[in-house]
Amino acid sequence: MAGVDVRGAPWGTRELDLLDPSTLVQRVHAVVLADGPASVGGVVRWLAERHFGFPVGRAPHEVVPIVPAAAVGRNPDDLGFSACEAAGPVEPGALVVVGETVAALVVVDAELDKAACRRVAMSAHDGLVRAGLHLPATVFAVATGVPTGTSLNDLCAVAADQVAEGAR
Q: In the chain, what percentage of residues exceed pLDDT 90?
């Protein structure tokens, strides 16, 4: 499950509207923070080749991967496919990427819906302000679905702290 908070006018974003709680899509298959918008295509291709995505037909290969993304630079190279090939397990925490805009990702161990993920993303965005980053920014929050009993309020506070630390 994922949510997003966007402030300013970042460019190079993709599929952010699908994270709105009113949309049909309930899960994302990846979130990409890239140095350029081209990398998203490689991630989508990697997922589709492995049949990960929103089902649009009966056959296993009839899927559309849901991959919200934010770019922070203008690199025209597609590095997404090779990044997926090299990826390993992800530890929950925060990642902040700064370029011409800012993109951040917070991963929390929690069982949240899209609205709660958006609330975590909004709080995490405050961490950028605490760190003195006042650029247009896109902040994603992803919940792993692992219930820990941590309150939403506590998740929001920790997310803001983690992003502030990652941005410094």
A: 85
